Amino acid sequence: MSESKQPPLSKADEEAARLAAEEQAAQKFATRYRQLSLPWRIIVTTLTVALVLLAINQIFNFGFFIGQVMLSARYLYIYAGAILAMVFICFPAGAWAKRDGVPWYDLLIVAAVVGIFGYFAWNAERIVLEAWEYAAPQFAIYLSMATWLIVLDAGRRTGGMPILVIVAVISLYPLYADRMPDVVSGVSMSLQEAAAFHIFSEESMFGIPMQVAAMLLFGFLLFGVGLQYTGAGTFFINLAFALLGKARGGPAKVAIFSSGLMGSMSGGPVTNVLTTGPLSIPAMRRIGFSRGYAAGVEACASTGGVLMPPIMGATAFVMANFLGVSYVQVAIAAIIPSLLYFFGLFMQIDAYAARHNLKGLPAEELPRIGQVLKDGWYFIFVFVLLVWMLIYLQREATAPFYATALLLIINQFTKHRWGVKELLAYIRGVGQILAELGGILAAIGLIVGALQVTGMAGTLTNDLVYLAGNNVLVLLIMGALTSFVLGIGMTVTAAYIFLAIILAPALIRAGLDPMASHMFIMYWGMLSFITPPVALAAFVAASVAQVSAMRAGLEAMRLGTIIYFIPFFFVFNPALLMQGSWDEIAIVLVTALIGVWLLSAALQGYLIGIGTLGDGLPGWASRAFILASGLVLAAPGGGMLGVAHGTLVMSAVVLVVIGSMLALIQRKRDGEPIRLTI
Fold first, then answer.
1. Which is higher by pLDDT, 123 or 293?
2. Best label site of 60, 500, 529, 546, fewest CB within 10 Å?
């Protein structure tokens, strides 16, 4: 019997499952991270504290230590060196490797990292002024080649073998770019030249991913870990359980609510997974969801939080600057698309739970809403400060530091009050997340650098736009593919900035609405978080669920199917971005919601009112008709489509009737009763 069709567990079995999940999580932690001795824990803690102080000094421009702000290149070399050192201290080389200490070969690598990055930091001014990415001394070139190998292994340890393979192949692209077909060919260079560019330029390892992590995401990571260790994360989880825990497939719906809410506050998909995933994923497993499905739900919900107002991360502020509008206008435009995305996730989970008879949790095990609010209402103050600083002061880099400080102060007046032990645990948690994310981003940066130095990024974009000709729909499809390719492995903000410069002007020149064009590339640029081969949010959720990273990525991709269509919908008619008359906005919203519901039913094989859509060829035919009806209804009438709303509605009704009849006919042939289902 498959995991997704397990019968309901008794209360005793559920308690045993909970304890087993906790034990498995502990084993996963022991497998993924080394169990360090006291001296090594002190070293990691010291490195983490030093990194936090260094980041505060740089981000707030305090000028500690030297009386002035440190050169950005020197800061990044010190930051990356500390991060990579922690990677090789905390992460074992493989499943076969020793986990109760740091072996001799990792000691050598750590020593090499300290020596190499110390040399780079000492010579940071020379590297910048003498342009070492093109004219480095021979000794520095040898060090850059060694660094390349170290970064590849750091990416493997933190992100898995897929990261190693993808990064290795693409980072080596400059060596064979001139021998590729014309469409994907580029400027080639020698191994030594490529190594120097990767390590010494501001466009590769130390490009946008690393810069954003060191200067912008750092504070949000502190905030996210703080939420975990102070009980604020648990507050949102309990609130979601109190509201939705009893519903069909309740724990998965809890993940949508809690992760979406957390995501709208922190703006970081990976942080969201790490905050809510350890609680929601085991709960999903308890009622019968498979590991892969649970990881996919958490990844999709956490990624969607980036799109949810009031706080959408730094990308919204960058977009406002590009468009020359206020942040409030961007947030208002994002309301309906984010609503459609989370509604689609909710309805897919409801259909999946109904098809596999997955019940909610018993009422006696769920927290009461009144008690939850009584215990955690004070966390609202933290988010009020964060929202105020982000929206009114527009201090996206410093706001999370202030929010974290307030959170930790409030925490000392609650039942979650920390002692020295809890403080050290928080610092170690920060260090582990910094190391894990930093190792991945350092490796991913090599991909960006390879595309930049060969000219492949601009060539691919120009070729796709040229091939589209004057066909706006083809241009959108080409733009979506370009956005996705360039968004692989990048942060949402980094991908958006790159695409806003290259692609958005072409879309606007084609006659598309500016807000819709910029939203389009943001949505497609962030899809890499849930789409293999580099699905960071899904891969992190996989580590929590103890399942294959690729399986989690594929499940997330299937669950997030609706997000692949939503950008096209609001480009077709900007009324979905709250632009237009209120009656037009109301019409497209209602039809889109019904269309998304039908899409969700087709994807999961269960339609409320009809029931299971069947198996085999008749079942797939039924799904196809209902899927088509959902797409027709969700695609807004008027606007670029030039089709009246009534025409689309009538077409959708015909398609859904045909699909429903096929499902009912098959059920009658199978001897199943035909009755209304909910």
1. 123
2. 60
